[in-house]
Design a protein that fits this description.
- This protein is an alpha+beta fold.
- The chain has two domains: 20-70; 75-155, PH-domain like.
- Helices cover 36% and strands 26% of the residues.
- The protein has six helices and seven strands.
- It has helices at residues 5-8, 20-24, 29-43, 50-72, 137-151, 162-165; strands spanning 13-17, 74-78, 81-85, 89-93, 97-105, 108-115, 120-129.
- The protein has a four-stranded antiparallel β-sheet with strand order 1-2-3-4, with helices on both faces. Strands 5-6-7 form a three-stranded antiparallel β-sheet, covered by helices on one side.
- Helix 3 runs antiparallel to helix 4 (50-72).
Length: 181
């Protein structure tokens, strides 16, 4: 049995974006507040009409904007670089990456890329946390890490953190809490 060349070829790029729930979630409190207010007014005897249609239109427009912008944010992995899609697009070459970690930020877990110069870039997607969970977050994190290891190049060498390069105080050999004197 033969395998086709298409199936044998590795992927040239991978793109991670917000999940559908993560894109829509910021718009959900608006209809609850607006419609709750309108129901309260209706129960008190006030006429409700055009304002209700206006609030439906506003929520629909906001939902559409969030769905469109949610598809923009994320990261694209190519063979030579990671393209981070935030408000401004940023390119990080794999040879400059020193580590890829998961860090907590405002109740969520995000993937962070550490560069040789000490710069830290937090990715908007993949992300997981309370009310914005992503079942495939761990798998996506491991794929990003494996992609970096596979594409960083044969001449990649780890670079000490910038504080170490500046000649900080010597670290004691035995007890890290011992006095330096």
């Amino acid at each position: 049995m033969e395998r086709s060349q298409v199936a044998a070829r590795p992927q040239e790029r991978i793109r991670y974006r917000y999940t559908l729930l993560q894109s829509v979630l910021p718009a959900l409190p608006l209809p609850v507040i607006v419609w709750g207010t309108k129901v309260w007014e209706w129960m008190s005897g006030k006429p409700v009409g055009a304002e209700m249609a206006e609030s439906f239109g506003l929520w629909g427009a906001m939902l559409l904007v969030l769905l469109i912008t949610g598809q923009y944010f994320g990261v694209t992995l190519t063979e030579s670089k990671a393209i981070v899609h935030n408000l401004r697009r940023r390119t990080i070459h794999w040879s400059n990456v020193q580590a890829i970690c998961v860090e907590g930020f405002q109740g969520t877990q995000t993937v962070v890329i550490y560069e040789a110069g000490g710069r830290r870039t937090r990715l908007r997607a993949p992300i997981t946390g309370f009310l914005c969970w992503d079942r495939g977050f761990e798998q996506k994190f491991h794929i990003i890490g494996r992609w970096w290891q596979d594409h960083r190049g044969p001449d990649w060498t780890p670079v000490p953190p910038p504080a170490t390069q500046l000649g900080g105080p010597p670290v004691p050999d035995q007890n890290p809490f011992a006095s330096p004197t």
